[in-house]
Structure formats: C-alpha cells, structure tokens
C-alpha cells in the first residue's frame, strides 16, 4: 500500500475576504503546523500564531488549529490555518506548506479521504457538494439532511432487509435436505413485497430530492406572439426577454432560475414555433426543439383568442401542459376547465406556480425531503427491477437460487449509492444471524 501523503488546499473561495482558510490533511499535519507557526500545537485548540517562512519572515498572522486523527473531518491528522483572505497572501502561505512537504490537494480530495476513512459514505460526500451548490434554502436543508445520513439510513435499512432475505434464502438452498418450498413460505413473499414498497417510496423521495438538487427544467414553448417571453418575465419578476408585438422576436434561448417555495425552477424561454425562411429564426426554432426534448416539462403557451393550433409540431403529451394566455382579451364565457393566464396583467400566475410545483412532484409540506442525485434514483430503480425479477423467479419457477441472485443484484445496486464494497460480508451476516447447528 502506498504511504498516505499530506494534502493542502485553500478552502475558502478565491478572492478577498476577512478570513482565508487553508486546510491540510495527512501525517505531516502537526509537524507542518508547528513549523509554520513556530509553536507547539495542542489538538482542538485555537493558537494565535505568526505564520513564517524558512527565513523567519512573517507571511501572515492568524489562527492555527490542529485536529489529531481520527477526530477530524477526513479522519486523518488535519491542520487549519485561518489567515487573511487575500489571494496573494493565501498563495504565499500555501507555497510554504508545499515546501514543508505537503502536496496540492485535488478537487474533492478531502471529502474523498473522509469517505475512504469511513467518516461519511458516498451519498453523504455527494451531499457536501450539493449543500455548497444549493440554490434555494429548501435545497440547502435537503442537502443537510442527506449529509446527516437521512438518505443513507434509508438505503442501509433496505440493504439490511435485502441481506436478511438473502441470508434466509441461501441458508435454505444450502440445506436441501430440508426441502424448503419457497413459494409456500409466505414469510419470503411478504418480505419481498415489503422491500418492493419501501423501494418504491424511496425512489419517489429520491426523485424529488434530485429535482430539489438540480432544479426543475421548464421550457416555455408555443407559436410566435403567444406571450412566452411575457410569461418568462412575469415569472422571473424582471424584463429578461424582449417582448414585442412582432412575431419571431425571441431567437436565442433565455433562461431564468426562480424559486417557487424552495423549488428551484429553470425557466427556459424559446423561439416561437412556426415555418420560416429566416435563417436566424430557423436556428432559434432548432434550439427550441432541442430544449423541448431535454425539458423535464413543457408549458405550451396558446393564445386563447387564436383557435389555430400548433399542428405541425409534435409534443410529448406526458410532459406537456397547455396554458392559455391573453385571457384578458377573451370575451366569451370560458366553461372549459383549462389553465388560463394573462402574462401581462399577472392573472392566474399564482395558480400556474402551484401547478408547476405539482408537475415537479414537489410538496413543501413534505419536511422529510432530502437531496439525492440522478444516479441514486437509477440505482434504486435497478434494485427495484432486480427485486421484481426475483419475485417472478420465485412465483414462476420456485427458484431459490435465481431469487438469491437477483437479491444480490439489488444489493449491489444499493451499495453503489453508499459506495460500500460488501465482498462477502454476507457470510458474516449468515453466521452471526443463524444458528448453523440447528
Ligand atoms: N393583452 C395581452 N397581451 C399579451 C399578453 N401576453 C403577451 N401579450 C402581448 O403579446 C405580444 C407578444 O408577446 P411576447 O411575450 O413577445 O410573445 P412570444 O413571441 O410568445 O414571446 C406582446 O405585444 C405582448 O405585450 C397577455 O396576457 N395579454
Ligand atoms: Mg418571445
């Protein structure tokens, strides 16, 4: 095994600030800290020090704090130097640390070490990045919940149930003389169904968490002059896109991110869809179609006074909501149950926002929301598929081996979330959980 080296990096963002923090992790942390501050460092105590180079010239003054392994963020010896927050002074200090034997840390390397040292699991490490990146207060709270293990605990609970199930099935396979009829064993079917429903719930929650993390991508599409840009402007509360009565004004994609009760929504205004010979407008329409394809959802804006529809453009109805605009100019009684707004007068905008939350599957009331990532949702779905297949194997073939195999697949999928490698810890589970002499 390669010896662990000592890594160092500026931990505060580049630029000027009252304080700038340099973090260092690895076996040299204490000695580097004591050399640079020319004093002994007691763990977990703030020491005021003059940070000096090898000539004794003072680079900066500030606080040195040393954390002895394993009681630190990374689980290694860690040093934090809190000096003044200026890019030049922090660079000088970092250079000195590198002189003393540390090496520049790679992106995410502190969190990686925390993961490798079992301080946090993979989902929690990801939550740190998500917390820092969060664009709404709700997203930050969700990331914090994930960091504190709310999501990981759910996955661990599922893993435990899967392992338990597998242990039971495998033990039965290993003792064929007992001739277990798997299907007749209702306990197995019940447990599988339990896992299925828990997986379904977790997939839903993680899906919400993924939207909370990355935001809901909402495209505004429709014919020219329907009022798409006006809608973007009224939703974002500023004049982001040019609005004119001239059809074909919008050509480039204009994006604004808004916060609907904590849900980050990326609103994407597009060029009006129509046949055109204008080269620039054509490109705009191509971009609009690409945006429509990639969208989580599309608001198809229709002028309520314009009965002619956008016929030659196909919309995926499962992710399209029709919104009727310019209701202020509509003079007929409107019996149809439809979403009507006036982008210029602001009529129906609150209802539309509520609708957007529903479309995103977002509910504020759900205080248990934690952030998750697409890969987590995919892994959970893989696990669910495997469990479903396992149950089919059981029901059709009464096949214990095939069931055990699918359960292992499900377990592997979940392990991808937490980043655990469970080579054959299953054996240990079997022995400790089962009385083998029985
Ligand atoms: N009366 C009325 N006019 C609107 C409404 N929404 C947009 N308009 C007008 O319709 C024209 C086209 O609007 P615009 O937002 O540029 O449409 P886009 O081409 O779909 O982006 C402009 O003159 C707007 O002022 C509305 O709700 N009511
Ligand atoms: Mg426009």
Concise synopsis of the structure shown:
This protein is α/β, with parallel strands linked by helices and 438 residues long. 45% of the residues lie in helices and 17% in strands.
Please give a handful of descriptors for the protein shown.
single chain, 438 residues, alpha/beta, Gyrase A, domain 2, Four Helix Bundle (Hemerythrin (Met), subunit A), Rossmann fold, 3 domains, 6-stranded mixed β-sheet, 12 strands, 45% helix, disordered C terminus, binds guanosine-5'-diphosphate, binds magnesium ion
What does this structure look like?
This protein is α/β, with parallel strands linked by helices. It has three domains: 7-119, Gyrase A, domain 2 (2-Layer Sandwich); 137-211 and 372-433, Up-down Bundle (Four Helix Bundle (Hemerythrin (Met), subunit A)), CATH 1.20.120.430; 217-359, P-loop containing nucleotide triphosphate hydrolases (Rossmann fold, 3-Layer(aba) Sandwich), CATH 3.40.50. It is 45% helix and 17% strand. The strands form two sheets. A six-stranded mixed β-sheet has the order 3-4-5-2-1-6. A hairpin with a 2-residue loop joins strand 8 (254-260) and strand 9 (263-269). The longest helix is centred in the middle third of the chain and has 29 residues, at 186-214. The two termini are 42 Å apart. The model is unreliable at 422-438 (pLDDT under 50). Bound molecules: guanosine-5'-diphosphate and magnesium ion (MG). The site of magnesium ion has 5 residues, from helix 8.
């Amino acid at each position: 095994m390669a010896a662990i080296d000592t890594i160092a990096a500026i931990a505060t963002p580049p630029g000027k600030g009252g304080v700038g923090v340099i973090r260092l992790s690895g076996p040299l942390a204490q000695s580097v800290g004591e050399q640079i501050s020319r004093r002994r460092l007691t763990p977990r105590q703030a020491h005021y020090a003059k940070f000096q180079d090898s000539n004794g010239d003072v680079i900066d003054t500030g606080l040195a704090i040393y954390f002895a392994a394993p009681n630190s963020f990374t689980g290694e010896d860690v040093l934090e130097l809190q000096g003044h927050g200026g890019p030049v002074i922090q660079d000088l200090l970092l250079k000195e640390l590198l002189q003393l034997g540390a090496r520049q840390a790679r992106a995410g390397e502190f969190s990686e070490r925390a993961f490798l040292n079992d301080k946090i699991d993979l989902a929690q490490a990801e939550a740190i990045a998500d917390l820092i990146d969060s664009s709404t207060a709700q997203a930050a709270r969700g990331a914090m919940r994930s960091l504190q293990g709310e999501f990981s605990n759910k996955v661990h609970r599922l893993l435990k149930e899967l392992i338990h199930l597998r242990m039971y099935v495998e033990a039965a396979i290993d003792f064929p003389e007992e001739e277990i009829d798997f299907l007749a064993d209702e306990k197995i079917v019940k447990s599988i169904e339990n896992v299925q429903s828990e997986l379904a719930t977790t997939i839903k929650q993680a899906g919400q968490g993924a939207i909370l993390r990355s935001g809901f991508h909402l495209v505004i599409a429709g014919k020219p002059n329907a009022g798409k840009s006006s809608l973007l402007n009224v939703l974002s509360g500023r004049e982001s896109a040019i609005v004119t009565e001239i059809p074909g004004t919008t050509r480039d994609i204009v994006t604004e991110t808004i916060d609907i009760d904590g849900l980050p929504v990326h609103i994407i205004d597009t060029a009006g869809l129509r046949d055109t010979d204008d080269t620039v407008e054509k490109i705009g329409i191509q971009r609009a179609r690409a945006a429509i394809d990639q969208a989580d959802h599309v608001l198809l804006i229709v002028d309520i006074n314009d009965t002619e529809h956008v016929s030659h453009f196909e919309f995926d109805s499962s992710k399209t909501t029709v919104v009727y605009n310019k209701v202020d100019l509509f003079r007929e009684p409107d019996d149809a149950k439809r979403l009507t707004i006036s982008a210029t007068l602001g009529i129906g905008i609150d209802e539309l926002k509520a609708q957007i939350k529903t479309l995103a599957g977002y509910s504020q009331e759900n205080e248990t929301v934690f952030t998750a990532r697409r890969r987590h949702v995919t892994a959970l779905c893989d696990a669910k598929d495997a469990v479903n297949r396992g149950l089919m194997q059981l029901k059709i073939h009464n096949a214990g081996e095939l069931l055990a195999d699918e359960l292992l697949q499900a377990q592997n999928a979940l392990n991808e979330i937490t980043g655990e490698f469970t080579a054959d810890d299953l054996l240990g589970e079997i022995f400790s959980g089962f009385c083998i002499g029985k």
